[in-house]
Specification:
Helices cover 51% and strands 12% of the residues. With 433 residues, the protein is an alpha+beta fold. A six-stranded mixed beta sheet has the order 4-10-9-8-7-6. A two-stranded antiparallel sheet has the order 1-5. The longest helix has 32 residues. The protein is elongated, with a radius of gyration of 41 Å.
């Protein structure tokens, strides 16, 4: 029998309603596993599935991005920074030696009548200095500074100064070869020293930023001062000592306590040249004879001593250093001396380890000189000619006659008045003391 159209319609409608109910029930379920495999998923389903799959807790041993960042972070100063510090130190030490060699080469040439240096020797020295300065500039440019605490800024300052040193070295060589009377070369030397000081200042700030607790030996200088009093007269030497004061004719003894800082001292505003130097090897005791311009004060000499000691510590290690200040090569320490030694005692140099200045003390015995006593150029010329005559006479005759006996002979031989020789000797005695 054929079903009625009404019955068929009712059956179909019931089936459709049942299917709709099942679909609605499945869509409202929290369990994704009840979804039939062939069920089509709507466009919003991925969002729902992403939310439900991230609901479970993260496993205990999972590594999150935050944890990874914490592990890679190194405490300052870390190995990278300390490696940078070591590179900078090596360049600074080498630059200090170049600066010393530059100054020595120029001093030797300016005093060639005494040193006997020839043009070819000075030219070869300045060529070597130029090449080394260029190499250090290039080495500085290849070092990559860390990003912490302003190090890139100070590194850039040091690099620029290193480049200026190289340029000044080129100019010094050109000045030596030029037909002028030394003005160009001396100007280049002055520029080199200024750039070297700027370089050292930047290196000092780099060291201050990083700190010196890294076990790297860096140059230092002692800076504390104890009380001292000076009395200067023209009378015979007298010495009076108390527990806090040392009074000496023409000189002050100032003992500097052993404290350290890495700040490079301000350069003394005084022209000078190292006219002689020497050393002993065991212990390492260095001595310098430094000629300064007329009018130099005691304060300038003391600051110059501190500056020279710092530069020498940058370029090499010593156990004791003494600087004899003079105006003329004749005489010994006519402007006083400046000592940096263990406990302030030159003889105790062996008690210090090379490069360890923790027990060093500075003894300042520089003099506030009466520059009105300075001999004239004419007097110094007569004095030197007379001294040369005396030396030759003593070598030839193996005797050392008194001045009263020798002056008449010297005056006749040199073509000068006896009074001029007497005047020159008196002027020197008044100056040298």
């Amino acid at each position: 029998m054929t079903p009625s159209p009404i019955v068929s319609f009712a059956r179909n409608r019931a089936l459709l309603l049942l299917c709709a109910f099942v679909v609605a029930l499945v869509a409202c379920s929290d369990d994704p596993e009840v979804v039939p495999p062939d069920t089509e998923v709507s466009d919003t389903t991925p969002v729902v599935e992403l939310t439900t799959t991230t609901t479970p807790a993260t496993p205990v041993d999972a590594t999150t991005p935050t944890t990874t960042t914490t592990v890679l972070q190194e405490e300052f100063p870390g190995p990278t920074v300390l490696s940078y510090l070591e590179e900078i130190r090596n360049i600074a030490v080498a630059s200090g030696q170049v600066a010393l060699d530059m100054r020595a080469a120029n001093n030797d040439w300016d005093n060639r009548s005494v040193t006997g240096v020839e043009f070819g020797d000075t030219e070869a020295a300045l060529v070597g200095i130029r090449d080394r300065a260029r190499q250090l500039r290039d080495a500085m440019g290849l070092v990559e500074p860390p990003t912490e605490f302003g190090l890139p800024v100070e590194h850039q300052t040091a690099w620029v100064a290193s480049g200026e040193m190289a340029d000044a070295a080129v100019e010094a060589l050109a000045g030596l070869r030029s037909p002028d009377t030394g003005e160009r070369r001396r100007a280049a030397l002055s520029g080199f020293i200024v750039s070297f000081e700027r370089f050292n200042g930047a290196v000092d700030r780099i060291v201050d930023i990083i700190g010196v607790g890294a076990g790297i030996d860096l140059p230092t200088i002692t800076v504390a001062t104890t009380a001292a009093t000076t009395t200067t007269t023209t009378a015979a030497d007298t010495t009076a000592t108390t527990s806090a004061t040392t009074t000496t004719t023409g000189a002050t003894t100032t003992t500097v306590a052993a404290s350290t800082t890495t700040t490079l001292p301000v350069a003394a505003d005084v022209e000078y040249s190292i006219i002689d130097s020497g050393e002993s090897s065991d212990p390492v005791q260095l001595w310098l004879t430094v000629s300064v311009e007329a009018g130099s004060t005691k304060d300038q000499l003391a600051r110059l001593g501190t500056r020279l000691a710092t530069e020498y510590r940058l370029s090499r290690e010593y156990q004791a250093l003494v600087i004899h200040f003079v105006r003329f090569p004749e005489g010994i320490a006519t402007l006083g001396r400046w000592t940096d030694a263990p406990y302030g005692d030159w003889e105790r140099a062996g008690e210090a380890t090379k490069g360890d200045y923790s027990n060093h003390q500075i003894v300042d015995e520089t003099i506030e000189k009466d520059w009105s006593l300075l001999p004239t150029d004419e007097q110094m010329d007569v004095l030197r000619r007379y001294n040369d005559y005396r030396t030759a006479y003593e070598v030839e005759n193996q005797v050392s006659p008194p001045d009263a006996e020798l002056i008449p002979q010297a005056a006749a031989a040199l073509g000068v008045e006896e009074a001029a020789i007497d005047d020159a000797l008196d002027a020197w005695r008044a100056w040298a003391g």
